[in-house]
Amino acid sequence: MLAYLANRLLLMIPTLLGVAVLIFFMLRVVPGDIVEVKLRGDGGNPSQATVEAERKRLGLDKPIYAQFGDWMVGLAKLDFGKSMWTERPVTEEIGLRLELSLQVALMATVIAILISIPMGTLSALLQNTWIDYFIRIFTIAGLAMPSFWLGMLTIVSLLYFFNWLPPLTYTPIYKDPWNNLAQLFWPALAVGYRYSAIVARMMRSSIIEVLNEDYIRTARAKGVYERLVVVRHAMRNAMLPVITVIGLEFAFLIGGLVVTEQVFNLNGIGRLFVQAVGRNDFTLIQAMVMLTAVVFILSNLVVDLLYAVFDPRIRYR
Amino acid sequence: MTLLRMTLAFFAALALTTGAQAQTPKRGSTLNFAITAETPHYDCQGSDTFATLHFASPFYSTLLTFDLPKYPAVKGDLAESWTISPDQKTYTFKLFKNVKFHDGKPMTSTDVKANYDRMRNPPAGVVSTRQATFQDIDTIETPDPYTVVFKLKDINPSMIEHFASPWNCIYPAEKLAADPNWPKNNILGSGPFKFVEHVKGSHVSGVRNENYFRQGQPYLDGFKGTFFSQSAAMLNSLQGGQVLAEFRTISSADRDRLVQAMGDKIRIEESSWTLNLQVVFNTRKKPFDDVRVRRALNMAIDRWGGSQGLARTSALRHVGGLIRPGSPYAIDPKELEKFPGFQHDMVKARAEAKRLLAEAGVPNLSFQLFNRSIAQPYTPAGVFLVDQWRQIGVNVEHRQLETSPYLAGMSSGQFDVAIDFSNLFMDEPSLGLAKYVSSSKAPENRSGFESPEIDALIEKQSHIGDPKERIKVIREAEKLILESSHQVPILWWHRIVATHKILMGWEMSPSHNLGQDLARVWIDQ
Q: Which of A54, A152, A279 sits opposite B404 (nearest CB)?
């Protein structure tokens, strides 16, 4: 198991290297110049000499291969450089937002699991009953309704009915749990609903499929209690594709909640990503792509390890 | 009529503000307000975005400042008094003697000189977007710690307004000497508030400077400016009372929503704005090198009609020439109507536009309109233009790009026709006309148009002290520019600021860059 883990972690290196090379050169192909955005984006009128001086200061006057060399040397030292926009270390820029995004992703995942696993299971077990129909409508609505729209409805409803809005400023949960949850519960709920719809539908179809397997029939034939059949045999085996979906969705949530973050005015990774792209902030975009790649690789690794927990036939060597 | 309404609205707003000021200010409370963009750095002298000013102004003082109820008059900030020599080339400022930076050290003429030297002649690695503004300063002398003397190379009638520019924050000279880029990442001023924290992506906050040189001010205990990236979220917070104001603008639709939801709890102030959108023809490309084509396309735009419709959906509203309508150097509307693109009879204008296109050999013209992918007010302006040109048989593809590729395309001249913008902090003709200087001299003129005659007139007006004489030269330059139609205003913007009625002492102006130090702001509760 440890050898497998070490092997997977080592394999991350060439994958991340490939990502680093790709993102570096792709960004240089896209038209645009951060210096132009910085100095002229709001109608400024700097002299050409000022523009050139700023370009030189940011190292953008160097040949591409030299810029690439600097980036790779920095990566080897785990130095991701400074944001070209704010000129603060990108680790500082990202670190500030990662805590919030990670918490929203975790809360949304917990909400999704709490809703989807029982609902998906019930829907499968009570197939074609009114409960099943209700759950299917509930999940289809979740898929059809964008999270940001549900977020907007939530905000407007809170304002209209309670004349109350979630706090504007993020406070870490260890400093002020109430304030923290009052701010992040609503976006987590808006995102968690859509997330739960995807997982519940996967759970339902997976259980229906497993319930038709020979080993379930055998268990029932042996007289095992129905509850045990469902919980120990059906649900456990049905969890494998569900875990995959949960893992992928979780990784997506770290940087993919752009509009939801805007609706709730959250200072998260998604918003930072969009701002960085809009400004051509190369160093920040590169670091954030690397972060996203790491999150996806790690969440895939966790999912693979969880397979072994749920399916005893799977062994990693 | 529009101009009259606009003027009345502005003065009504001023009356409201003045009325608010007439009450005795109450000390205390913390002001929460919204900032709809976040500054990339803290250096006012190297910035051109309101995001820097709405963030940093409360921490800093400037030599002079605009007297907003009497706009465009100026008044002293750090300067207790000043004199201008009869030849208008020497400006002598006497500074207040009790000004201290937030670290307790006194602010003297050395600090003022160091900052103006930095702006007009930035050291290596320093970006000063004010360099051109102060190119007329020849020398700066400091005969004593509280006197600064600026000697100009030539007369500059707008220099006094430039001394009142909100971008001219005064930093401690010793900090600049140690690191000329120190103000980019550090805050230390002599303004009404002391810096507390800037949480990136979230907010900035400040606390009252108890040693502020104007006794009794500021009235607030502190402030917190929260950054918003989406107007809907900002509006919800404004309506819910989480923030008491957003000082840039809101749309007319948002104004109506707030008024309907909040009734008499919200105060609305409106003014025309020192911003405009412009249509730019790339004269390096055929057929836009032909003045007949440019004039035809310009004539097809129904600005008077458009101003009615666009005002309902966007910040665009006022028809004007090169100088903000209603401001001291603006063209008279009756005079403006004589120029192509500003006529009222659109049937006649469009017939003439079609004739000009046929004469130029492009009766079935097609091109791409290059625009910025910012919803307000770029998208409605683009849609409007496409529709206007369709009415004379011109087929236009509307191409909207993110800010970065948009600016790259504009700089490299890779467009046919584009929507550009002009953002001024005050009504100063030299600032407004800078965009019309030949492209070879002024990169911000994206049209590629060259005219030594226009350049000479723009240069000439900038050194005329007599306003009447200056207006004459400005009109001459404006005539040439509007007739050549290489770059012309579409419409000027309209500013709408919504504040909770308990917020007092804030003053409305035609520029969102002015009046943000919050020294006289207080909360009536």
A: A279
What's the total number of domains in chain B?
A: 2
B34 close to B237: Cβ distance less than 8 angstroms: yes
Nearest CA in chain B to A93: B200
Dihedral (C-alpha) A188, A192, A194, A199: value to the nearest 10 degrees?
160
Q: Which residue has the tokens 């050898």?
A: A3
B421 DSSP 8-state letter? E
Given a cut of 50, whether residue B1 has pLDDT beyond it is no
- Report B:420-449 residues touching A (Cβ under 8 A): 421-424, 434-435, 442-444
Q: Is pLDDT at B20 greater than 50 in this prediction?
A: no
Residues of B in contact with A44 (CB under 8 A): 47-49, 129, 423
Q: How many domains does chain A have?
A: 2
A73 with A218, same domain: the answer is no
Cα–Cα nearest to B384, from B323, B333, B325, B313: B313
In a domain, B118, yes or no: yes
Residue A125 lies in a domain: yes
Query: Binning pLDDT at 50, 70 and 90, where does residue B255 land?
Result: very high
Residues A200 and A98 in one domain: yes
Task: Determine the 3-state secondary structure of B487 from DSSP.
Answer: strand
Q: Is residue B104 part of a domain?
A: yes
Q: Which residues of A touch B232 (CB under 8 A)?
A: 152, 263
Interface of B with A in 211-250 (CB under 8 A): 226, 228-230, 232-234, 236-237, 239-240, 242-243
Residue A316 in domain: no
Listed in sequence order, the residues at least 6 apart from B43 whose beta carbon sits closer than 8 Å to its beta carbon are B52, B127, B181, B183, B184
Selected residue of B31, B50, B202 to mutate for chain A interface (largest A Cβ count, 10 A): B202
Contact B423 A42 (CB under 8 A): yes
| A48: confidence class by pLDDT, cuts 50, 70, 90 | confident
> What's the number of CA atoms in the CB half-sphere (13 Å) around residue B456?
3
In this complex, is the C-beta atom of A53 within 8 Å of any C-beta atom belonging to chain B? yes
Examine the domain organization and report whether B311 and B180 are in the same domain. no
Residue A179 placed within a domain: yes
A159 vs B contacts (CB less than 8 Å): 236, 239-240
Could you give the CA distance from residue B204 to residue B31 in angstroms, rounded to a whole number? 12
Q: Which residues contact A253 (CB under 8 A, 6 or more apart)?
A: A101, A104, A105, A108, A109, A191, A195
Q: Which residue from B267, B321, B382, B231 is spatially nearest to B20, judged by alpha carbons? A: B267
Calculate what percentage of chain A has a pLDDT beyond 90.
Answer: 70
CB B163 within 8 A of CB B63: yes
Beta carbons of B264 and B501 less than 8 angstroms apart: yes
- Which B positions 49-78 lie with beta carbon below 8 A of chain A? 49-51
User: In this structure, are B490 and B508 located in the same domain?
Assistant: no
Cβ neighbours of A272 in B, within 8 Å: 201
Among the partner residues B125, B239, B407, nearest to A37 by beta-carbon distance: B407
How far is the alpha carbon of A278 from chain B, nearest alpha carbon, in Å? 6
List the CATH number of the domain containing A167: 1.10.3720.10
Name the residue range of residue B329's domain. Answer: 275-494
Which band of pLDDT confidence, cut at 50, 70 and 90, is reported for residue A44?
low
Question: Average pLDDT, whole number, for chain A?
Answer: 91
Question: Do B202 and A40 make contact, defined as CB atoms within 8 angstroms?
Answer: no
| A104 and A223 in a common domain | yes
Do residue A45 and residue A96 come from a single domain?
Answer: no
Q: Does a structural domain hold residue A4? A: no
Domain shared by A41 and A100, yes or no: no
Domain coverage including residue A166: 90-310
Q: Say if B55 falls within a structural domain.
A: yes
pLDDT band at B332 (very low <50, low <70, confident <90, very high): very high
Q: Do A159 and A191 fall into the same domain?
A: yes
Is the minimum CB–CB distance between B257 and chain A shorter than 8 Å?
no
